[in-house]
Design brief:
alpha/beta; Rossmann fold; TIM Barrel; 6-stranded parallel beta sheet; 17 strands
Length: 579
């Protein structure tokens, strides 16, 4: 039996498809810059949302045959892979596309359009935060049939599929925006908002079983280089109790987009079981998403008791400072822990404007508590483009990092800086009240954001600028801060001389390309501009990854490779690459 027949021609009840941010990114010449330097995926955001795994598990338990097609990751991995061909060969009762992160505004719509052209009678369903926010605009597109709204769509999607199979109208399915056979639009009430996550399967085993069933790993990998770094994520919560100004997952945004008035948590015991299962599956770090203290210290204590004895690498994140007492408890339960902490700025004015109510010395005390407790590393993240942040303040963050590195003199402490890019999150406080937070927005609709993604550089793609920094200034400051921080890391031995030199060269190249593209845009437009940009594509592509820091700096040094069984499946999948 031919492998491709198994992957593409078998009938499924439902296929999840993950698109690149821009569908034809391989043909376009776009200077993406540092927008993805601090996430595992590439600049086309080839990492599909965590919801794919929980939705797949739920639908399989309900009796549906389901698969995932990560078109973005396959396009990144192989220039021979044809997404058009894969879309035409896909066969299902319905197709689902994520529009969770707004940078997929172009690619997701392009995939939907191609699906409808190839399979005109097959329903196309959208879901995700951004799809929920723009559901009214999205449903008006002729190639979109349904939008499932909210942050917990497992049951609504199941009920919708049951109607699709039965050929009946989903008038009672909650959280659904849809078109009937006459093209009339209906917006069903958003009443399905579960208050717990304990009904979900979150251990990724259903995904692994599907890999074995389909003899195909490439379509299921969460992001392109996952096979080299098989990190997994354990979800503690949907929703949030905090109101950071730039966050589309904040409590304010939740009330607007998901109708969620309080967070829904995974029970600590089930979370501990998830961590153990993931540790056995990948033998790589497990990232616990969400601050364990958000549900209260009793929740954290119960989790620590339940996970006691697990010795795998675990990444934890903090939404607020920690003290020595808490870190001693965490270290006793999770001895091989790593920390991610994002104060976003060293500047108290910026912190307050962003919703971070830190006291003087909180960052230093948090670092000390974590390092003293035995953290394998402490990643400290700062951002550029925040409310009240001037160019001087953004650059002073690097000076602040120098002080931290001098104070702690510990190679486990690693600072990072990156731009708030490319878009303001829909439904965030800053997006909804730009004047109050000092932002000027260049995009208001889904189509606005889709069009921005076709601009030549990340500077021009930015959907905002601030009262304190224009788009030009934001780009200049980002490159300069990255340049200074790279030299600082070399000085303190956090990176080697060769890696530092490579990063510095890429920053210089990106700056020169930005200036060159600005000059082209000043004198050319239309087809002439596109032609000139295509001539620069080799240089642009070379400057598009690891711009202000090398992406490998994010990887855990003690990482272990993907297990042998999954590597065999990967080799099978590699053999299925399109010719």
């Amino acid at each position: 039996m031919g492998g491709r027949a198994v992957v593409y021609c078998a009938m499924y009840d439902f296929i999840f498809l993950h698109a690149p941010s821009v569908y034809d990114f391989r043909e376009r010449a776009t200077l993406w810059g540092p927008i993805s330097d601090l996430v595992p995926s590439t600049p086309v955001f080839d990492m599909y949302p965590l919801g794919f795994s929980t939705l797949m598990a739920h639908l399989q338990q309900a009796g549906f045959k389901v698969r995932i097609m990560n078109l973005a990751a396959r396009m990144v991995r192989s220039a021979r892979f044809s997404p058009d061909r894969a879309i035409k060969r896909a066969s299902a009762r319905a197709f689902g596309i994520d529009l969770h992160w707004l940078p997929h505004a172009h690619g997701s719509l392009a995939v939907a359009q191609r699906l409808k052209q190839a399979h005109p009678q097959t329903p196309v369903i959208f879901g995700g935060y951004s799809a929920s926010y723009f559901h009214q605009e999205l449903i008006r597109r002729p190639y979109v049939d349904y939008v499932v709204r909210g942050d917990s769509t497992e049951h609504p999607l199941q009920w919708l599929l049951e109607h699709i199979v039965a050929g009946t109208e989903p008038r009672e399915v909650p959280n659904l925006t849809w078109k009937d056979r006459h093209g009339e639009i209906h917006v069903n009430p958003q009443t399905y908002v579960p208050q717990s996550l304990d009904h979900l399967t979150m251990n990724f085993h259903p995904v692994v079983r599907s890999v074995v069933r389909d003899l195909d790993l490439l379509n299921y990998v969460p992001f392109e280089h996952w096979m080299e770094y098989p990190i997994m994520a354990a979800l503690t919560v949907r929703g949030c109790s905090r109101n950071c100004a730039i966050c589309g997952g904040s409590a304010f945004a939740g009330r607007r987009v998901t109708n969620r008035t309080r967070p829904a948590f995974r029970s600590p015991e089930k979370l501990a079981a998830d961590v153990r299962a993931m540790g056995k599956l990948s033998h790589a770090p497990v990232f616990i998403l969400g601050d364990l203290r958000q549900a209260g210290m009793d929740y954290a204590d119960r989790f620590f008791r339940a996970v006691q004895g697990f010795d795998g690498a675990v990444i934890v994140e903090f939404f607020q400072p920690v003290d020595h007492a808490y870190m001693e408890k965490l270290a006793a339960a999770l001895p091989n822990f790593l920390v991610e902490f994002s104060p976003e700025s060293h500047d108290p004015r910026v912190q307050r404007a962003s919703g971070k109510a830190y006291r003087a010395g909180d960052i230093e005390r948090t670092i000390a508590a974590c390092l003293d407790a035995g953290a394998q590393r402490f990643d400290l993240f700062f951002m550029i483009g925040m409310p009240q942040q001037t160019a001087e303040s953004a650059l002073e963050t690097v000076d602040y990092c120098r002080g931290l590195l001098q104070q702690f003199d510990d190679p486990r402490l690693i600072p990072f800086t990156s731009p708030l890019a490319p878009f303001l999150d829909p439904a965030s406080l800053a997006y909804e009240h730009p004047d109050r937070y000092g932002y000027r927005r260049f995009a208001h609709t889904l189509e606005d954001h889709r069009q921005l993604l076709l601009r030549p550089t990340w500077k021009h793609i930015l959907s905002y600028e601030t009262k304190w920094m224009s788009r030009d200034t934001l780009a200049q400051v980002t490159y300069e801060a990255g340049f200074r921080l790279n030299r600082l890391k070399r000085e303190f031995g956090l990176i080697g001389a060769a890696k530092a030199a490579e990063t510095e060269a890429r920053i210089g190249q990106a700056r020169a390309l930005m200036a060159q593209i600005d000059q082209l845009m000043a004198r050319l437009d239309g087809a002439a501009l596109e032609s000139a940009l295509r001539a620069l594509k080799p240089q642009i592509d070379a400057a598009n990854t690891s711009t202000v820091c090398d992406k490998s700096e994010l990887d855990v040094a003690s990482r272990r490779k993907i297990p042998f069984k999954l590597l065999n499946l990967a080799r099978v999948g590699l053999g299925l690459e399109e010719k």
